[in-house]
Amino acid sequence: MDALLKELPVHQGLARVFGALGQDGFWRALVDTLRLLVPMDNALVALMHSGRVPRLLIDFDSKGSATEQEELADYSAGMYLLDPFYQAVCAGIVDGLHSLDSVAADQFLQSEYYLSYFRSVVGSDELQFMVNVDGAVLGLSMGRSARFTLQEQGRLLCVRDWVLAAMRRHLQLMPPQGAAAEPVAGDLAALLDRFDARLSVREIETARLILQGFSSKAIAQQMGISPETVKVHRRNLYHKLNVNGHGELFALVLQPR
After folding, report:
1. CA atoms within 13 A on the CB side of 42
2. CATH number for region 188-254
3. Which end of the chain is less packed: N or C, by CB atoms within 10 Å?
4. pLDDT digit string (tens) for 185-214?
């Protein structure tokens, strides 16, 4: 009985979640209930289609500052192309609770995207509940400055099935958004083409993987070539773009504010 009483706020939160299905207060009720299980600094709901700009549905814990609004605008303007969760959507991802570690490149935490953008916007770590709905993926992102522990991830795994079911049902109950579709996304190859540097297909692929945070060894495995050949491609693309490293490459291609 004591254990049940201790969990009473969670059960009450669960009632609010299902009572708000198809209504504007659903996401707030869901995030507040999940916070009873695991602390988080921020939460963001997005609808992601492969090859399209993600639609940001609702952002929690934003202070509404000009800087934060610019950061979200930067995401929609092109930063999403380096988002590991968006990349996972494009590659095909199953319904579930997914961690940053499970979808990110091996050196993501050393990437310029993480150091100059992700860390300030999301935090040091991120978890996402993700569910496939009508050819898109609905994601509830939870971020914070401290890493999520395995125990905390375990708590969220215990509620995963009802969270995903509620997210799917809520989207089905919401009124249609109209005929307007998200703009078609570009890709990193298209961004690199702007510089007329005559990069080869291999050099463009190398640049994409560098920006995503893959090490030379991982790039070699992804491309089926030797690490020495990766170094040649890296050197050539840096020379053609007149940059001295991945930090300058990031600044050149994504042009963060």
Report:
1. 21
2. 1.10.10.10
3. N
4. 677 777 877 777 788 989 999 999 999 999
